[in-house]
Specification:
alpha+beta; 60s Ribosomal Protein L30, Chain: A; 7 strands; globular
Length: 153
């Protein structure tokens, strides 16, 4: 069902990106899955390198956040042994926006990830969230998003 919803929304899941350093892409603790911060990459190609408010608009940042969210879902699918229907709910997203000092719309940027979760999971996609601005992110990307999900083990 979830895979069908993704297709209906016009999205496909990329292969799981490899970690960029020494960490696990996800960790299961009880019925929770913690997904490490994901970058805006697509099938190994890094996208949106630069700052929101300088190189990128809010809308570009939202697209970067959506790419991060798709990478989150890819790792979540692996954590759920290939079955995203085991997801009970999206508990929390954390969003980081590499932005200029005067940029103030970090929450609007991270809405790109939040809205995707709601579109995919419906009411179970509504979540707690943080959206913060930073002066740099790994590899110079504009956005990074991590997530916590409850799953039916």
């Amino acid at each position: 069902m979830i895979e069908n919803r993704l297709r209906e929304l016009g999205f496909e899941l990329p292969p799981p990106p490899l970690p960029a350093a020494t960490y696990e892409p996800f960790v299961k603790v009880g019925s929770l899955v913690f997904i490490s911060g994901q970058l805006p990459s697509w099938k190994g190609d890094l996208k949106y390198v630069g700052k929101v408010g300088l190189a990128f608009s809010i809308e570009d940042g939202q697209e970067a956040a959506r790419l991060c969210a798709l990478n989150i879902l890819t790792h979540l699918k692996v954590a759920c042994e290939g079955d995203l229907n085991r997801v009970v709910r999206c508990v929390r997203l954390g969003g980081f926006v590499n932005a200029t000092d005067d940029f103030k719309d970090h929450p609007k940027v991270i809405n790109g990830a939040s809205e995707l979760m709601i579109a995919v999971f419906g009411e179970q996609g509504r979540h707690a969230r943080a959206a913060v601005g930073v002066n740099a992110l790994p590899l110079g990307v504009a956005v990074e998003v991590d997530g916590i999900f409850e799953v039916d083990m």
